[in-house]
Every structure is written in structure tokens, then in C-alpha cells.
Design brief:
By secondary structure, the chain is mainly beta. The chain has a single domain (25-155), classed as Immunoglobulin-like. Helix content is 9%, strand content 44%. The protein has one helix at 5-20, and strands at 29-30, 35-40, 45-47, 51-60, 66-75, 85-89, 100-102, 106-112, 117-125, 134-143, 147-156. The strands form 2 sheets. Strands 1-2-4-9-6-7 form a 6-stranded antiparallel beta sheet, with no helix packed on it. A 5-stranded mixed beta sheet has the order 3-11-10-5-8, with no helix packed on it. A hairpin with a 3-residue loop joins strand 10 (134-143) and strand 11. The protein is elongated and about 45 Å long.
Length: 172
């Protein structure tokens, strides 16, 4: 079976993710019919109590319009899905989505014409206390095909080092 550019790009991304192991890496998920689902927060680590903005994008790279699309966002216990808020961008000219809402998005009956995309920005707070070492957010497409894209971030206490309360050299 010949390798397409999309397959070659996906394999390269998978190899890069495998090499980084514990670091965050979002690999796009490809579906039959030309649908591509991605999730990204542009972070490799998060702190307890931090608000994380996930960008979920659904692209129709196929030649035909896609209808009756259903998807949702599922998060690990370290994220507070009940306190989430989301907004959808890109609706119009035949593309539909729910606009905005509170809690995790659960969308159904969406339409996405060929060559168009929809993007959701989902803001989810990290719980102030969780025993988990990382947090996961998964965009799950259930119709017209099953597809999942996951973003994982390592939880850290301090990532920028210790702040100095007073200068140690005595200078003001």
C-alpha cells in the first residue's frame, strides 16, 4: 500500500511523540471520508489550579460534505470538567456548531462542508489537588465515524524555578 503524505506526516508525528514519551504530544486523528480531528493546548506541563485552554479542530479534507457529526470532550479526573467553558468558531456557510456553553462540550447533529473546519476553544481548570501525575483531555468523535485525539500534560508544582522574595545580594 503506497504511503500518502498524510500517512507519512502521521508516522513522523508518532515517532516524535514516542521519542518524547512523558511529554505532551497531540497527534491528529484521521478518519475515513477525510475528517481530521486534533486537540492541542500548546503546553507540555500544567500546574495545579491552572486554567488550560484546549483547541479542538475538526477539518473536512474530503470531497463530500459531512453531516450528523457528533463529538464530545472527555477529561481525566485531574481536570474539573464541570467548571469548563467552551466556544465554537467557524460556523456559517453550511458549517454548524453549538456556539458556546458551560461544562464539557457534547455536540451532535453538526454539519461540515468539504474543505471547511470548525474549532472549539475549551477552557478547563486543573483541580487544585489530584493524585495524578498528568492530565488528559480527549476529543472523541462518535459519528459518522469513531475517532479520538488526546492531549496529555505533566502536572508540576514549580516549573519556572523558585521566586526570590528579597534580593540575596543586598541590592535594592
Amino acid at each position: 500500500m503506497p504511503r500518502t503524505d498524510a500517512r507519512r506526516g502521521r508516522r513522523s508525528a508518532l515517532r516524535a511523540c514516542s521519542a518524547l514519551m512523558a511529554l505532551s504530544c497531540a497527534v491528529p486523528a484521521f478518519a475515513g471520508g477525510g475528517l481530521v480531528l486534533t486537540i492541542e493546548d500548546d503546553l507540555d506541563h500544567v500546574r495545579y489550579g491552572q486554567l488550560v485552554d484546549y483547541r479542538v479542530t475538526l477539518v473536512n479534507e474530503g470531497n463530500a460534505d459531512a453531516g450528523n457529526i457528533s463529538w464530545s470532550l472527555v477529561v481525566s479526573d485531574g481536570l474539573d470538567g464541570d467548571a469548563a467553558h467552551w466556544v465554537c468558531y467557524g460556523a456559517g456557510a453550511g458549517a454548524t456548531c453549538g456556539g458556546s456553553g458551560d461544562g464539557l462540550p457534547v455536540e451532535g447533529g453538526l454539519l461540515l462542508p468539504a474543505g471547511r473546519s470548525l474549532t472549539w476553544v475549551v477552557s478547563v481548570p486543573v483541580r487544585p489537588a489530584t493524585p495524578d501525575a498528568w492530565v488528559d483531555a480527549a476529543a472523541v468523535l462518535v459519528a459518522p465515524v469513531e475517532l479520538e485525539a488526546v492531549d496529555r500534560d505533566v502536572l508540576v508544582l514549580l516549573r519556572d524555578g523558585f521566586d526570590e522574595a528579597y534580593p540575596l545580594d543586598g541590592a535594592d
